[in-house]
Amino acid sequence: MAARMENVEEIRNRVILGEFGVTNVHTTDFPGNYPGYDDTWNVEKFQKNFRIDVVHLDENSMEFDMVGIDAAIANAFRRILLAEVPTMATEKVFIYSNTSIVQDEVLAHRLGLIPIKADPHLFEYRNTGKEEGSEIDTIQLQLKIKCSRNPRASKDSSDPRELYLNHMVYSKDIKWVPIGNQADVFADCCIGPVHDDILIAQLRPGQELDIVMHCVKGIGTKVAKVVNSRLDTCSREVLRHSDLKNVVKLGRVRDHFIFTVESTGILPPDVLVTEAIKVLVAKCQRFLNELDSTAME
Amino acid sequence: MAGEGEKKAVLEMVQADGADEGCVTFVLHDEDHTLGNSLRYMIMKNADVEFCGYTITHPSESKINFRIQTRGGIPAAEPLRRGLNELSDVCQHVLNTFQVSMCDCSVHNMCLT
């Protein structure tokens, strides 16, 4: 579609919402596309137009607007927030005894999904191929629980809460076992699951669980259960009435993004966003170093 | 010319024989749309670049083929390096702006709803 004079501003700056589809989605303001416009990358212009407005902030979620940045980079931040911010999560589960009705692998899967409250900055990544963990890269957690009959229950009660002791296994039953010098290093901050009330399994008298878990530092792409936050970049809903559809044209500003970040509790949301931006910088640096090292040869 | 010096290659260059240095395909390992699309945007904003695109060869393999064609005989590694530097600067600026607005937020206390 040829760009007429009055259309040009609209094509450059707006994403048009038609009745049946969305048009003008892709960024077109690259140098050479529009005669008369200088679209080369200009740092001053970017810094002048760019701003961030924090709309809402509490300890688990935040909402902020990012204005003046292109979709490609905003999407990169979104992808990193979802999958590549490092966290600690259970990777290896050693099951010494499991006589519950939940299968070993299902139990291990559930344990891996539990978020662990530990600052990933204080830990190193475990080297691949190294089987034994050491104190700098591993957290050891233990879950040892046995269900028994309650001797003080009345004869004709049928409520499991009264009849049995320890018949629901919650995440608060997971205990941290410090290895090496972790007891001194982490003396003041308690390491364990973020939430205490995650139900892991149900037991009946005579069944027991004796499990040791090793948590390592990982990112979502490698350890798919290590998801730190749920982020939704959505534009605000715009209402449409059928009697106005021929008269009203709806467009969204192309470079205005609303980020909603909700954390699982391990790290506060503003720390998550900061980490995500640093991850993207680190990726660029990695390739720059690679380019420099090959250029030297 | 391959990215050597370590056991696992991170960045490789593949060049067709006979073509000049301005048309090169880079193979970036362990990368996906996250870096690919944002880097493509930054490099396309460079006026010396005639073509820039990336493709994920297969979804099971985490590597991308990143192609740059320049006009004027400029070696293709140069817009790549410039794009990486500019992307890094953009992120740094976003980080600074974010931290400033977080400080403003906590000082004024107006967004704690």
TrEMBL record, chain A:
Residues annotated as signal peptide: none
Record GO biological process: DNA-templated transcription
Limits of the DNA-directed RNA polymerase RpoA/D/Rpb3-type domain: 61-290
Compartments it resides in: Nucleus
Keyword GTP-binding belongs to the record: no
The entry's keywords: DNA-directed RNA polymerase, Nucleus, Transcription
One Gene Ontology cellular component: RNA polymerase III complex
InterPro entries linked: DNA-dir_RNA_pol_30-40kDasu_CS, DNA-dir_RNA_pol_insert, DNA-dir_RNA_pol_RpoA/D/Rpb3, RBP11-like, RNAPI/III_AC40, RNApol_insert_sf, Rpo3/RPB3_RNA_Pol_subunit
Gene Ontology MF annotations: DNA binding; DNA-directed RNA polymerase activity; protein dimerization activity
SUPFAM superfamilies referenced in this protein's UniProt entry, alphabetically: Insert subdomain of RNA polymerase alpha subunit (SSF56553), RBP11-like subunits of RNA polymerase (SSF55257)
Pfam family, one: RNA_pol_L
Family listed: Belongs to the archaeal Rpo3/eukaryotic RPB3 RNA polymerase subunit family.
Name of the protein in question: DNA-directed RNA polymerases I and III subunit RPAC1
Organism expressing this protein natively: Maylandia zebra
Taxonomy of the source species: Eukaryota, Metazoa, Chordata, Craniata, Vertebrata
From TrEMBL, chain B:
A family per Pfam: RNA_pol_L_2
InterPro entries reported in the protein's UniProt record: RBP11-like, RBP11-like_dimer, RNA_pol_Rpb11_13-16kDa_CS, RNAP_AC19, Rpo11-like
Family indicated by similarity: Belongs to the archaeal Rpo11/eukaryotic RPB11/RPC19 RNA polymerase subunit family.
Protein name per UniProt: DNA-directed RNA polymerases I and III subunit RPAC2
Subcellular location: Nucleus
Every DNA-directed RNA polymerase RBP11-like dimerisation domain range: 23-96
GO molecular function, one term: DNA binding
Organism (species): Maylandia zebra
Protein origin, superkingdom: Eukaryota
Keyword terms: DNA-directed RNA polymerase, Nucleus, Transcription
HAMAP family per the UniProt record, alphabetical: RNApol_arch_Rpo11
Lineage start: Eukaryota, Metazoa, Chordata, Craniata, Vertebrata
SUPFAM superfamilies according to UniProt: RBP11-like subunits of RNA polymerase (SSF55257)
GO biological process, one term: embryonic viscerocranium morphogenesis
One cellular-component annotation, GO: RNA polymerase I complex
Record's keyword annotation contains Nucleus: yes
Keyword Nucleus belongs to the record: yes
